[in-house]
Amino acid sequence: MAMAEPFNNATESRLIKQWMPRKRGETYIACESVDFQWSHSDVRTAIKLWDEGNSLWTMQRLLDRPQDDVLALIFSLAREGKINPRKRGIFYG
Question: Which domain holds residue 85?
Answer without folding.
Answer: 33-93
